[in-house]
Tetratricopeptide repeat protein
Amino acid sequence: MTIGPRRGKIGRAGRPGTLIVLAAACSCWGMVPAGAADLDEAEALLRSGSYEEAARMAAEAVGGFVWEERWIQLKAEAELATGADEAALASLEVGLRRFPASLPLLMMARDVFRYTGRAGEVPAVLDRIERLIRTFPDRYDTAGGRVALGRFFLLRGIDPKQVLDRFFDVAIDREPGLVDAYLASAELALEKRDDALAAETLARAPEEAADDPRYQFLLARAFSEGDRARSAEAIEAALGLNPNHADSLLLRANHLIDAEAYEQAEAVLGRVLEINSRDQQAWAFLAVIAHLTNDPEGEAEARASALDRWEENPEVDHILGRELSQKYRFAEGSAYQRRALERDPEYLPAKIQLCTDLLRLGAEEEGWALANEVFERDGYNVLAYNLVTLKGELDGYRTLEGDGFLVRMDPDEAELYGDRVLDLLGRARQTLRERYGASVEEPVVVEVFPSKNDFAVRTFGLPGADGFLGVCFGRVITAISPAAQGEDPSNWESVLWHEYCHSVTLARSKNKMPRWLSEGISVFEEGREDPSWATRIDPHSREKLLADDLTPLSGLSGAFLAPESPLDVQFAYFESALAVEFLVGLEGLEAIRGLLDDLGAGVPINDALPDRFGKSLEELDEQFLDLARSKAEAAAPGASWEVPELPPDADVEALEAWLEGHPGSIPGWRRLGLRLVDEERWERAEEALTTLKGLDPDGVGPESADALLAAVFRERDDPEAEREALQSLVSRDAGAGSALLRLIELDEEEEDWPSLADHCRAMLAVNPLIPAPHRGLARAAERLGETGDAIDAYQALATLDPTDPAEIHFRLAGLLQQEGRADEARREVLKALEEAPRFREAHRLLLELVEGEPAIPR
């Protein structure tokens, strides 16, 4: 899956004749460059947010009949920024009498007319602009004119690639310092959902662009989804330049709503309304907060205020729906997108958002149809392009049906482990539905992707999604298969268990639960189902738990936002699970079920917690912090996490000398053990690693004491000690694939069939796409008389292009014969003979099958 077309394809182009004329046009649009000091001063006032002062200066200039068009435009811009729409209309009328062919003023008329009850005149204004362009093309051929023309042609549906090439890029080539050209290009990229291209475009802008709040705001938008911390920095920069920059304040409020910091968001929105009491987006966001806090009257009032400025504005309902969907309330979100489309059936942002909502709700027929419709209308919409391309991939997937599930997988992968997926989901369904008393709307659709980009597009609309293994939307679950995870895949069974748990808790809470609680319950339930799936304290999480700024229980809603590193994201999962463990310890699982019911009834989480657990929020915070610290202190007691202050190439003697003064240092003993293993000093390595094991008995990973001890014991030819170390490791880490593969080798050498079967099954939950676990399970199940499992394993092995296909088909034929499946057995023995025509035992078995003789024991 690749990102949508950007600059490489020319799509449909309305009115190509106009573009051809303009491509050769030259001259000026009638705007006199503002060189006077007072105009520069007014521009600076406008940029800094001193709108009333800027409007006053402009009014004086316009009243004095200064024939510079920019004064009139500046006055109207300042008036619009404060909601003085009627004053802006009067300024516009004066301007158009003086400059009837002014493209900037005519373009401004689009907003001014809508905000003053004259929206019906907008089409005539756009037609007037087009007539002027056709009649006087030379008038608009400055670099600034090219930017304005590009924006106009985008409104008229001209192909974005042509606009970019013939207008914005031409403007930059002619005047590399023209900041507005870079801003226009970045706006276009953001409109098409191409955040990376927007950031790239802004990075090429001249240095002085950083002094423009619009630049910082666009940069904040470009990083809003992928790097929230950097986005916040850009918002701060914009507001440092202009404390009244409404767009930046609105983006900050949006981030606060994401973090469920509703009071803070309301304060920011209040600031926007102080600047402009008619700001439509501010009122829309207030309606969002009212909806999320179960205030239907407040929501209706805020929505009415949002529509007061322009009643037919589809953006208001689009914002409401988009933000509700951001909270996984897709049914409510999609209803608002439909309301937006009632106001403007051609409003593409609502169409593509409705598309993604429907796909997440499992309403696939309408969802995919909308993706096609948006792509046909706008071939440069990255989200639509990616979805349409993905649909072609999904059409080739195989669909498996189980009790309550539809599972879509790559056909080859479905053959190898599709039945295991269904079995795992069936167990999760029975266990978790009973545990949480929830009724999930079925069938639940589970899509498993062998491509990380395909998973990301289906899940988020764009490639990327590093760090995600699965996502649940309620009725729809997406996950990546081991094929997309490289050499060290995670345990896919634990991933699907985790995601289906989301389906259950989202159903009980009516999709009204904060992310921390949803993730916390799912991680908690992983460890409850299988201790080797549990998340354990590591040095990073221990340090975070003991830190003075540990996020309290009441603030966990913001824990997943603006992480400084992937480790911080993992810690957010860990802390959320610890919070659930804490709450279950207080009042049991029944209280958690009740909490989900409270949330489903619309009670905010920080109101529901005290009511449900009988303690104030402050008490809960304090007790949770006490638990967190006690957990951290109990991890590796008597040990320390001091890191040796030694050069990277420090030798054994230097490390041993340092450890004399720091005998409890886990990093120190680990580093010494690694150095000794590297130097093949096995006896001394065993001593050092045994010390490490005593200090950190629960360590996991390739540099844990158990993993390194296993390597030492292997070199010292001590299989029993090696097995003990490996067993210890996999009992804590279900994703330790290398350890499981080595255990499989040891089991086969010792012909320990029960242990071999167990370890092969465990490995199939990590990576079912390699032959070793299938081969081992086939042999073990055959010896143990588990014929069904042996058949499945040999069939999978045959699919994986084995090194000895004749033997595999022959053994499979014998097992099928034992099961009375003679026709299938004959097919398999013929396959064996195709591979090895002189295979005598296969000939003998074929005769038995043809003659109907009883099977000869083997």
The chain is about 65% helix and 5% strand. The CA atoms of residues 341 and 347 lie 6 Å apart.
